[in-house]
Design goal:
Strands 10, 11, 12, 13, 14, 15, 16 and 17 form an eight-stranded antiparallel β-sheet that branches. Strands 18, 19, 20, 21, 22, 23, 24 and 25 form an eight-stranded antiparallel β-sheet that branches. By secondary structure, the protein is mainly beta.
């Protein structure tokens, strides 16, 4: 009776509860234990990993100049990691021409671990002037940090400047509003307006260009590449058919053409003097620069040369509070050059904001005297002879008095005698001259005259130079 319970667990064949062999039961239990342990391992939570804190800042990089094939590969979105968690991302690109190459300015975002009020990027904080490298599968460049902080884009703007350059005639004519300067597919400058002026060298012309530049601001200064935009700085703009090497005349304002009247005085050959006429238009590279309004021509001692007073209406440019014609400020005494289809001349400005000499026209009786004139020349001077300027009489001889010149001789006995010269004459000439009355005196042919002044009169067959004896009413 004592063995009965045991016989209940195992039957006579050794099966557990009469169903399962004891060895098989042990195997089942082992499998259940393994599965349970594996499930516990899988279901338990993963241990926490120590992820370092990261931060970012933005810097401006100056890459200097590079060849076009390198520049064309640099784009926003390019990234580079020097190792670890550090990473550089290009967020903005600014290009400007410089010589035969292109200046590259980048705005980049740096990622690194915090370091006080900055961060550590590639083992050091992003200090000003530090050099950083960017290496991608297409290019490798390096540049210096010029600015730290701020947002991830350059403060870019469109800035209008007026440039002055001296160019050959062909290139000057090629400069046209709407021309663009493009680098790596980006428009960095556009020509808005242009005008040109003659120089004393017929092969060269002074050109003023109004251009809109793609600029950025750094430390409150507008910059075009590495150049701060201020008067006197030089920038280069290589267009398709020409290159502008312009000195900045104005920043933030456009070409401001206006009209200024001047009186110009010059001496030219007689043939050129005959070609100068009212209505002549001076043009340079297709741009009108001046119109002749009034012309007065006077004789000189050389019959092949004429002195010309020209009233001109100039196309000038406002430069501050002053007017500029080409590279010359419009003021009395300065020399300017104009060029038309039939002549080119340079002359000194006599008056500004006026087309004629000062004063009012009047007729004066003026007595002239010539001494020691050969008798044949003295006999050639007759009453009624005139000098005319473009059909208008400016001088008329009304009376001529000729007397032998006096000479002093010594006789054989040692006496001193005053006698008539055998062929030299002293000639007194009474004239009516067209003069201008001014507050400072009388002017003839644009020059002031008074007693003992010298005047030149072209009488057609003869030109005389005489001394003023008196000026009458």
């Amino acid at each position: 009776m004592a063995d009965r319970p045991s016989s209940t667990l195992l039957d006579e064949d050794g099966n557990l509860f009469g169903l399962l062999n004891i060895v098989d039961a042990l195997v089942v239990l082992l499998i259940i234990a393994v599965v349970t342990a594996g499930a516990a391992l899988v279901l338990q939570s993963e241990p926490e990993q120590n992820t370092p804190d990261l931060t970012t800042t933005n810097v401006t990089l100056d890459l200097g100049t590079h060849s076009p094939y390198i520049v064309s590969e640099i784009n926003e979105g390019d990234t580079y990691s020097p190792g670890g968690n550090a990473q550089l991302t290009i967020t903005d690109v600014h290009l400007t021409p410089q010589g035969e190459q292109t200046r590259v300015i980048l705005r980049t975002t740096l990622q690194g671990t915090p370091n006080g009020d900055s961060l550590t990027y590639a083992s050091a904080p992003p200090r000003l002037s530090r050099s950083l490298t960017i290496a991608t599968s297409r290019y490798k460049v390096s540049g210096q940090i010029r600015d730290v902080g701020g947002d991830n884009s350059l403060t870019q703007d469109k800035t209008t400047v007026v440039l002055r350059d001296t160019m050959g005639a062909t290139n000057a004519r090629d400069v046209t509003p709407g021309d663009e300067v493009r680098l790596a597919g980006r428009t960095v400058a556009t020509v808005e307006d242009v005008t040109a002026y003659a120089t004393e060298d017929p092969s060269q012309q002074t050109v003023f260009i109004e251009a809109t530049l793609d600029t950025y601001t750094q430390n409150d200064n507008r910059r075009f590449g590495g150049t701060q935009l201020r008067r006197g700085q030089t920038i280069t703009l290589p267009a398709t058919d020409y290159t502008i090497n312009g000195r900045i005349q104005q920043v933030g304002s456009s070409l401001q053409p206006t009209t200024t009247d001047v009186l110009l005085q010059t001496t030219v050959d007689a043939e050129t003097a005959d070609r100068i006429g009212a209505g002549n238009i001076a043009t340079v590279a297709g741009h009108e620069t001046a119109e002749v309004k009034i012309v007065t021509t006077y004789a000189t001692q050389n019959p092949n040369q004429k002195r010309v007073l020209i009233g001109l209406s100039l196309t000038t440019l406002e430069n501050g509070e002053r007017q500029q014609f080409g590279g010359t400020y419009v003021q009395r005494g300065n020399t300017i050059t104009i060029s038309t289809d039939s002549y080119e001349l340079s002359g000194a400005i006599k008056r500004v904001d006026a087309l004629e000499p000062r004063g009012t026209p009047e007729t004066r009786t003026v007595t002239l005297r010539m001494s020691d004139v050969r008798d044949d020349m003295a006999d050639a001077i007759e009453p009624g002879m005139t000098e005319a300027s473009r059909g208008e009489t400016i001088a008329r001889i009304t009376r001529v008095n000729s007397e032998p010149s006096l000479i002093i001789t010594t006789g054989d006995n040692g006496s001193v005698n005053v006698v008539d010269h055998p062929f030299l004459r002293d000639v007194t000439i009474t004239t009516e001259l067209q003069v201008r009355e001014t507050t400072s005196g009388v002017q003839f042919k644009g020059d002031s005259i008074q007693q003992n002044s010298r005047v030149v009169i072209n009488l057609g067959t003869i030109t005389i130079e005489a001394t003023v004896v008196s000026i009458g009413a």
